[in-house]
Amino acid sequence: MIQDAWQSSLNKATLPTDLIATWAERDVQESDGGIQKRLEQVGRSLMKGYHTAVTDELEAIAPKLNEIDEELRGFAYEGVGMGLAQRDFLTPSSQNRIATFVAGDGAAYANMVYVGLGLMLARVGRPIEPHLQRLDNAKGWLLVDGYGYYQGMFYWRDSLNHQVISQPISGYTRSVFDQGLGRSIWFVDGGDVNRIARTIDAFSLDRREDLWGGVGYACAYAGGAKRTTIEALGNTAGAYRLHLAQGTAYAAKSRQCLGNQSVYTELACQVLWGVSADAVADSLATNGETPESRLWQHYRARIPHPVRATLAA
């Protein structure tokens, strides 16, 4: 009964049911309609992964997700991370389901699964510190990214309007939180580049690089925008254009490693880098740095990007 009640609550709260109302309250003036449509696609994919994870055995999850379009499949694996985390919280077993899954069928999408764990922790209000103590840095950062994203998407009045961080985090962990928070801004502000800039300008200077990096990642990986929107975004970013562009570079790298290229990633790289997404991904040095900067790096420069050797049938 507890699980049924929690699942019912989760289904209602995981995705925004009235994005237009959110945009109106946030004074979004020139939203890119493609972003709303894209968010709906992302949401359906995420919920497919979530429902599969809470109802099916581990070995049945990956085959079912192969039914989802490759370009959207990563979002489904974030949903899997949410669903498996819920099962681990409610019905603990001798094996951690997330760890077992990413060691097997979910290995190629492990990064997305750990982002999903962060989404679930934010959803149920659990502290993240105990999990960070158990995970290595890469997995912990992905968790924090997911937590930051969820806070921005569903608690934006606190997280964006008042710049509240709900967890006692500091140092580089806060930077990762802000990159996840930046991803949420892409959707919550509906691609309105002036509104995005106003949102980020309300934050202290030491948080803005990470926020713009998160916006760049979401712009390229989740996508939904037209060329003119991305061009305007690059111009509006001003001194933070490189941080925005670096976010798109790691979106390109993630998609290249998984072999699930997207027209949105390609477009963002063409606009902000002037070359193809594959060329941008190939330009990333082995230490994760882009040739143009050694001052600031997206946290994804410091995590491994699993390569899927063969595409799923």
SSE blueprint and pairings:
Layout: H1 2-13, H2 19-25, H3 33-55, H4 58-65, H5 70-90, H6 97-102, H7 110-124, H8 129-134, H9 137-154, H10 156-161, H11 171-188, H12 193-201, H13 205-221, H14 227-237, H15 241-258, H16 263-273, H17 277-283
Molecular structure report:
This protein has one domain (2-302). By secondary structure, it is mainly alpha-helical. Helix 14 crosses helix 16 (263-273), helix 15 packs antiparallel against helix 16 (263-273) and helix 15 (241-258) packs across helix 17 (277-283). Residues 9-17, 286-294 and 309-313 have low confidence and may be disordered. It has 17 helices and no strands. The chain has helices at residues 2-13, 19-25, 33-55, 58-65, 70-90, 97-102, 110-124, 129-134, 137-154, 156-161, 171-188, 193-201, 205-221, 227-237, 241-258, 263-273, 277-283.
Query: Biggest sheet: strands, sense, closure?
Result: none
Percentage beta strand: under 5%
Mean pLDDT: 87
Question: Quick one: how many beta strands?
Answer: 0
Helix content: 55-70%
**Alpha-carbon distance between the two ends:** 38 Å
Number of alpha- plus pi-helical segments: 17
Weakly predicted, low-confidence segments: 9-17, 286-294, 309-313
Q: What is the CA-atom radius of gyration, in angstroms? A: 18 Å
Number of domains: 1
The H/E string reads HHHHHHHHHHHHHHHHH
Shape: globular
Structural class: mainly alpha
Based on the model shown, name its key terms:
17 helices; disordered C terminus; globular; single chain; 0% strand; 313 residues; mainly alpha
